[in-house]
Amino acid sequence: MPAYKAVIPAAGLGTRFLPATKAMPKEMLPVVDKPAIQYVVEEAVDAGIRDVLIIVGRNKNNIANHFDSVPELETALTTKGDTGKLGKVEHSSKLADIHITRQGEPRGLGHAVFRAKSYVGDSSFVVMLGDDLIDERDPLLPQMLAVHERTGGAVIALMEVDPEQVHLYGVATVGETADDGSVRVVDLVEKPAREDAPSNLAVIGRYVLSPEIFDVLEHTAPGKGGEIQLTDALRELAADPDGPGVYGVVFGGRRYDTGDRADYIKAVVQLAVDRDDLGAELRPWLKQFVAGFDAAE
Question: CA of 102: how far to CAs of 17, 55, 206, 291, in Å?
């Protein structure tokens, strides 16, 4: 399999988390004891990708700082003999080759991806949203990369969601299912009303794309919300009878949406209770906590 690069758009304003995100990117909010975006980079590395571009907006310098070395902190931890914490600090700075570029103004996911054109070059690449976490126990990218290698088409991650939630996602119309479980994507629509949604298969934040996406994005007009939508560009690729098409991998594993306040809290709790160093203490406390609600009701 060829070497892929990963592109992580992280230029959104994070308004749902204000005032916490007034001066700190939502991708840097801690999920237990690591910022959300570190989980995403680790997922890329686990899939064999070590070349990562993070697309940031203004006031997001601390994303770059997190993946940089901090000699003063490392020296202090070495002096104290705290090898455990030293290892955690060094881990984030040695994870991958991290590159940073700015989007300028937040004009949509499609515009953010287009900013990666010169970085990507003529090779296929992966797009990973910085607030969408996939549990490491349920790897998704390897299957998506395999489908791309087989078909040459764009590959998107799909997940069945509650029909009441389809207005929050791009939604796919799919055709036949291949032997590897992937589906052919016939059409896409960005954030439809429930009554207009063609299915409950939502596009979640993982994509494998070829460079032809840039030719489409270059002329993609602003769509939903006045932004340049990646979904609209993928829809054009899916409709091209002479192109390689768009395919979907339906994900049934554990996923955490840290871009929503309630889901962010759920993600922290779910990941914490599964940790060897925290679960034994948290699980009985959670049972007692929930039992208090049941008693009150």
Answer: 21, 5, 20, 48
